[in-house]
Write a structure and sequence with these properties.
- The protein is α+β, with helices and mostly antiparallel strands.
- The chain contains ten helices and 21 strands.
- The strands form five sheets. Strands 4-3-2-6-7-8 form a six-stranded antiparallel sheet. A five-stranded mixed β-barrel has the order 9-16-17-18-21.
- A hairpin with a 2-residue loop joins strand 2 and strand 3.
- Helix 4 (about 135-150) runs parallel beside helix 5 (about 220-230).
């Protein structure tokens, strides 16, 4: 059954958005701006939610938003709207310039260096040429739920969903840059419940990709969600202890996320990062590499230029265990006396700020089974709760659930524990397995970290 249709050309046509952004920049210059850039963002999404075989909700949204940043001397202002008609462009530009003139001076603001702007835009295959219909989304969600409910021990559905969408951006600057991209998104998710009453446990699985062909099947998503929920049944408590902790790939990317938050140029410039004095130092063992790759074909966060028009490139943030770079946009780079790394991100109502693209920690050489084989007592994490990580000090404390490891084998489910340590110590002892898969925006294989404190009963 083919339940999809070719995407309409008007949805993929960004010419009107490009023209609008160009007119905004020209209007800003006429109104007295020394420099300006405009972003126009397109968002189209459709999703369905299913429970007990019936569609509970079906939503569709569609809209274009524009933002204008103007610079007057060393002052800047940002304005945004989703409704420009008549003489609205001139009024928006005049308002932005008036706001900039009364803004405080900031010696670091400004457009990107023209020499750093992207000139080539490689095809990263981010746009699925077929838009899934509502009927196809319903089929995926219903199939995922049915597969979960078929798992022995699953007692209820927590709901299944399927979604599709298109998002993109046009960027025009007064320095002559003009770039645009579009990407599609597809997703399937399922939550399953095991047990009854106070003994209920829930777990989930999901898959997402720009192209529908790259999604895991609805059946595998549902089955995995069901199996995970059943495996969590009848969890035990454990005594407080210090043990090796192994992170499942579903949560291991969080360790990479904590590192990336600490090397964000904004945190470094504000001196609010525990890594502010660690550039060029050995943080991990020599076989560890952590890569940010904005040019990955069909990547969830891929794009060929950043939000200032700067050319992007693959970057080893950690290379042979050494911290090699901050993530910088133009303003934070100027403040730190460096050059932007092409990591500017922005929305229509904000000025650029640094952020990552497709992150991954490279795979190791041992299997997950080999990684835990010599652990006499330890903890295997499958779920993390809360965000108790202090980016200023590096102190780490997260609520968690998962499984107890005994004599190299996973034995029984464990809930309501806290994992505590310090990120610098965690980085030093981190060992990756060989099971890296590219499923999320941040990907890492199974990870083992020594000597963490497990807070139990």
């Amino acid at each position: 059954m083919l339940s999809s249709k070719p995407a309409t050309s008007d949805l993929f046509d960004q010419s009107a958005l490009s023209e609008l952004a160009q007119r905004l920049v020209e209007a800003a210059k006429r109104a007295g701006a020394d420099a300006a850039d405009a972003v126009a963002v397109r968002g189209v999404s459709q999703g369905v939610e299913v429970r007990d075989g019936r569609v509970e909700e079906s939503e569709r949204s569609e809209g274009d938003d524009v933002g204008l940043r103007v610079l007057v001397g060393q002052r800047q202002a940002v304005v945004s709207t989703n409704d420009i008609s008549g003489d609205g462009i001139a009024r928006l530009a005049e308002r932005a310039v008036a706001m900039a003139r009364v803004a405080p001076d900031d010696k670091y603001v400004g457009l990107a260096d023209p020499a750093l702007l992207a000139r080539d835009f490689p095809d990263l295959d981010l746009l699925d040429p077929v838009i899934s219909t509502t009927a196809e989304l319903e089929r995926r969600a219903i199939a995922a739920e049915a597969a979960a409910l078929a798992v022995k021990g699953v007692t209820k559905s927590g709901g299944a969903s399927a979604s599709t969408g298109i998002g993109g951006m046009v960027l025009v600057t007064s320095s002559g840059f003009h770039g645009a991209y579009l990407r599609s998104s597809q997703g399937i998710a399922m939550t399953a419940i095991s047990g009854e009453g106070t003994t209920m446990e829930r777990d989930y699985d999901y898959t997402s990709a720009p192209h529908a062909a790259d999604l895991a099947s609805p059946e595998s998503v549902g089955r995995t969600a069901g199996e995970r929920a059943v495996a969590r049944a009848n969890p035990r408590k454990v005594e407080t202890c210090k043990v090796p902790v192994v992170y499942d790939p579903r949560v291991s990317g969080s360790i990479v996320g904590h590192l990336i938050g600490a090397v964000n140029g904004a945190s470094i410039a504000r001196k609010t990062s525990f890594l502010k004095d660690r550039l060029g130092q050995q943080l991990f063992s020599k076989d560890i590499r952590i890569i940010d790759d904005p040019l990955r074909v069909r990547g969830l966060r891929s794009q060929s230029f950043d939000a200032e028009g700067v050319k992007v490139k693959k970057l080893a943030v950690i290379d042979e265990g050494v911290l090699t770079s901050w993530l910088l946009d133009s303003a934070t780079a100027r403040e730190l006396g460096l050059v932007t790394t092409g990591h500017a991100h922005r929305g229509v109502s904000s000025s650029p700020s640094p952020g990552a693209y497709n992150l991954h920690l490279e795979a190791g050489s041992v299997t997950p089974a080999e990684l835990i084989s010599d652990i006499k007592q330890g903890f295997y994490v499958t779920d993390l709760i809360g965000s108790g990580v202090n980016g200023v000090t590096g102190d780490y404390s997260r609520g968690a659930s998962g499984f107890w490891i005994e004599n190299g084998e996973i034995k029984y489910p464990v809930s309501e524990v806290t994992i505590a340590g310090h990120l610098l110590d965690m980085f030093k002892s981190l060992v990756p397995a060989n099971d890296l898969e590219f499923r999320y925006g941040v990907n890492a294989p199974t990870l083992r970290i020594e000597g963490l404190t497990l807070g139990g009963r």
